[in-house]
Design brief:
Strand content: 15-25%
CATH class of the largest domain: Alpha Beta
Radius of gyration: 25 Å
CATH superfamily of the largest domain: DNA primase, PRIM domain
Structural class: alpha+beta
Bound molecules: zinc ion
CATH topology of the largest domain: DNA primase, PRIM domain
Number of helices: 15
Mean pLDDT: 91
Number of strands: 18
Distance between the termini: 9 Å
Helix content: 25-40%
Number of domains: 3
CATH architecture of the largest domain: Alpha-Beta Complex
Strand order of the largest sheet: 2-1-3-12
Largest sheet: 4 strands, antiparallel
Shape: globular
Oligomer: single chain
Low-confidence stretches: 230-235
Length: 422
């Protein structure tokens, strides 16, 4: 039996278990469903189901490696795209370590250009985030080898926390309109299921994307107005006013917390000159109380326009949420279905309460396969945790592992079955 057939059987057992229930999204019968079939490795789209029972029996029959549904609601989910009758969509966010530079990604993620005529023999290889285009040949197809570690999850959790804060404090959504999920791989999905967002078109969703990612914030408009040298003293000092709502609040809070603890080195690291850094550290109380709280920006000698702009820019970058921008603005997007297995990990996409973002451990809560052991031959795998147990690192060795760990390593291309299973 091949390793992939063995994993297929585990997926099959999971979905066929009498205990398995499909958690249904809102307005279930108006969703388009899509499936990546395990054996055929082909995508089946434009499926609709009248009930979750019908969906469950389809899944049990076909055993997909991945199950998706539309963020949109349609009059006819099974019709062709332009005949479906779009009736609105949830507002969906995807925060994935695939799109966020992490220091661990440089260690555990690899890509290789698939172009047989790539300028580099055998195809150019690199580490970290897969580029859009091969630097050697311009090719756009890559083979990738990725890993999901705790640091990846920690990074995406910070971005998710920023996003949730904006959705609740700035947009005014309540906790029960927002659903939070672990994606099943290395990130989070946030779904806003509210009447208020359903009818937003792609342009409106792009506006939300810009807000969340900090594009076009007009706090920087002073830059254009302030002349380098002006006879009027006031014109060369920044005039942005921090306040109590939206990005103004976010920036105020962020600048305050950054400056409260920043050392001279921290300030120099974001490009502030020696003199400015010393002045800030020396006059910290004045900076916090007069500048930030009272918007009096020119009160400390040596801390001028350039310095304030650098601080604001740095804080802005800490406050944004690095979402996958394409997912949110696409009103026809398919998104992984809650409670289904991820074909790259065998972990579940799983929902948890908004307030448990910091305490929910995906490497425990998203584990689908409980019980059983299997012997696998592992080429190489970093140390990882699953269900509270630590495994690895492994290099060219045979190990007996719990089913969930064996499935993960096989799907990640790190291991194969060591012996024939009956
Ligand atoms: Zn190439
Ligand atoms: Zn990582």
């Amino acid at each position: 039996m091949s390793s992939r057939d063995w994993v297929y059987e585990r997926f099959s057992e999971f979905y066929k278990s009498p205990r398995y229930e499909f958690p249904s999204p809102a307005s279930f019968s108006q969703r388009e469903y899509g499936f990546l079939l395990f054996k055929e490795r082909a995508m089946v789209r434009h499926k609709g189901f009248a009930s979750s029972t019908a969906l469950r029996s389809f899944v049990r029959q076909r055993i997909p490696s991945d199950v998706y549904h539309s963020c949109a609601y349609y009059e006819n989910p099974e019709a062709e795209m332009d005949k479906k009758g779009w009736a609105g969509a949830d507002l969906v966010f995807d925060i994935d370590a695939d799109h966020i530079p992490t220091s661990c990604g440089k260690i555990h993620d690899e890509w290789k250009c698939s172009n047989p005529d790539c300028g580099v023999s055998g195809g150019m290889v690199g580490r970290g985030i897969t580029p859009d285009m091969c630097p050697a040949c311009g090719g756009v197809k890559f083979e990738t080898k990725t890993w999901a570690c705790e640091q990846c999850i920690d990074t995406t959790r910070v971005e998710t926390r920023n996003l949730l804060d904006m959705l609740m404090a700035d947009f005014g959504f309540s906790e029960h309109e927002i659903r939070t999920f672990f994606s099943g791989h290395r990130g989070y999905h946030i779904h806003v299921e509210s009447e208020a967002v359903r009818s937003l078109d792609a342009v409106a969703r792009k506006e939300i994307v810009d807000y969340v990612t900090g594009i076009g914030i007009d706090l920087f408009e002073e830059k254009k107005r302030a002349p380098h040298r002006s006879r009027q003293k006031k014109a060369s000092t920044p005039t942005f006013s921090l306040g109590d709502y939206g990005w103004k609040r976010r920036l105020k809070r962020g600048m305050r917390s950054f400056l409260q603890t920043a050392s001279k080195e921290d300030l120099k690291a974001i490009g502030i000159k020696q003199g400015g850094a010393s002045a800030i550290v020396k006059n910290k109380e004045t900076i916090l109380n007069r500048c930030i709280d009272e918007n009096r920006w020119n009160i400390v000698r040596g801390v001028g326009y350039e310095t304030w702009m650098r601080i604001a820019e740095h804080v802005k970058n800490r406050e944004i949420s690095q979402i996958d921008t394409v997912v949110t603005s696409d009103v026809h997007r398919l998104i992984r279905a809650n409670g289904t297995l991820h074909g790259k990990t065998g972990l579940l996409k799983v929902e948890f309460p908004v307030k448990e973002l910091d305490t929910f451990d995906p490497f425990v809560g998203a584990v689908a396969f409980k019980g059983g052991n299997t012997r696998v031959s592992i080429w190489d795998a970093p140390e990882f945790k699953l269900s509270g147990e630590t495994f690895g690192p492994y290099k060219n060795q045979q190990v007996t592992l719990p089913t969930a760990a064996a499935v993960l390593l096989i799907l990640k291309g790190r291991a194969e079955l060591a012996e024939v299973q009956s």
